[in-house]
Amino acid sequence: MGKTQEHELITIAAANKETSAPEAADTINVVASSDASQNRGFEWRVQIALYILLVLVGQSAAVLLGRLYFDKGGNSKWMATLVQVAGFPALFPLYKFFRKEKTPNYTPTTHLSPLKIASVYTFFGLFLAAMCMLYSIGLKYMPVSTFSLICSSQLAFNALFALFINSQKFTSYIINSVVLLTISSTLLCFHSDSSLPKGVSRRQNVIGFICTVGCSAGYGLQLSLTQFAFQRLLRKKNSFESTVDMIVYPAIVASCAAVVGLFASGEWKTLNSEMHQFELGKLSYVMTLVWTALMWQLYSIGMTGLINKMSSLFSNAVATLGLPIVPVLAVIFFHDAMDGIKVVAMLLAIWGFVSYGYQQYLDHYKLGHVLYEDNASSL
């Protein structure tokens, strides 16, 4: 739990001591009930579990499909960028499905006009398009194991940004989680598959390395800024509608930017021949792009939901947990060899995630205990 939220609840509880006992009890009960409904209720736990599942499944499938696209004849970096954001129309039915969702009244710290809110979404959209482009270049020019290694550094970048932007409280368990999850993915660089992909020169590999590092740093910053936007700028905090809004509106902007890049670069002229020359056939080419787009949307729902309900650092910890899963899935679908390094990487990732989860449990238990004591003392 973030330092700001815990401080606010404790301050409310302390202020209630100065009021009459009935008023204090009523106020604390409202706060405790609200906190329990959002943080400790069964429905909340189910939502968190679902978001985690979407992140792990979406990320793993999207990375493997992206690698498949380049391995089997795909060559357009702008197309690879576009499919990461163009699947947002699949989320439109969710607006109708969750239209009657009841959410607590929430007033953002800073009130923004519709024009300024649109500017926020536009900024996130353009930033997202840039990060997706860097991601596509890195995935094209680097081996999957090395690519996963560098992507794990986003957790360290996010931890640094969360410290200054989100006032993230660091404890020994969180530090332990960050270290273990980073080491877990770092081990993958020692895997024997760390040779250059077929047809990639040393110069292109260096470009891929620089782009992947830049993408990791930018993505860590984007997660922290997203949490900041939920906490300080946007309304309907903790609602599913706000989660979908943060995906759809930036995705519209990012898709437009990717389409402009696709035509401006001239890569659109090669898409027809690329489809016909795809090793798995034209239908497989189309389905690869479609399923890649859908998997990225599942990942986006999971990540944005975790940022909204928990924190940017927690969502990144879940994403980093999923990085060692990719080599394991590669064993199943691409018949890669499984070795001790992959097994150790997976175990360390699970250990690091459990460490972070235990810290979340301690935070919720501590907050509930404080509210209970203040409630009892006011009676």
TrEMBL record:
The chain crosses the membrane at residues 48-70, 76-98, 118-138, 144-166, 173-194, 206-225, 246-264, 284-301, 313-334, 340-358. Pfam families: PUNUT. Its main location: membrane. GO terms for molecular function: purine nucleobase transmembrane transporter activity; purine nucleoside transmembrane transporter activity. It is a multi-pass membrane protein. GO terms for cellular component: membrane. Belongs to the purine permeases (TC 2.A.7.14) family. This is Probable purine permease. It comes from Saponaria officinalis. The lineage of its organism: Eukaryota, Viridiplantae, Streptophyta, Embryophyta, Tracheophyta.
